[in-house]
């Protein structure tokens, strides 16, 4: 049993050391006087080697909107914390557990997509709503992935 735990720990640490430098995270600090109500980012999809697992997108402290590719299956994922409650799903969007929505979409390489997370807070009701959207330039339309409610107002 000790050998299995040691081997698992060593594998986990090695994975962290190897994968860590390949990830890139950009933090945008906001001044205390600024109240952010939405976040938008453009993501340009690149062609990668076959069989690679890919995840890219945007994330707030409580919600994430991501493009995901795993074994040639391409999806758009909207994640919220475990205490979050999914209120609305977009057309053809499916639940994956209680706090994750998945939409199967085969995005195009070398194409730029806009990801948009918007918030609506109610301090009196002590909750905040997060919604995730993807913009398709060719169609000139936004696609709603979903909206969730998180109890406990967080500025």
Could you characterize what this model shows?
With 155 residues, this protein is mainly beta. Helix content is 12%, strand content 46%. The chain is built from one helix and ten strands. It has a five-stranded antiparallel β-sheet, with no helix packed on it. It has a five-stranded antiparallel β-sheet with strand order 2-3-4-7-6, with no helix packed on it. A hairpin with a 4-residue loop joins β8 and β9. The longest helix has 18 residues. About 3% of the residues have low confidence.
Question: Total strand count, please?
Answer: 10
In N-to-C order, the SSE pattern is HEEEEEEEEEE
Average pLDDT over all residues? 77
Helix content: 10-25%
- Helical stretch tally: 1
Distance between the termini: 46 Å
Portion in strands: over 45%
Radius of gyration: 18 Å
User: Stretches where pLDDT falls below 50 for ≥5 residues?
Assistant: 31-35
Supply database-style keywords.
five-stranded antiparallel beta sheet, 155 residues, single chain, mainly beta, 10 strands
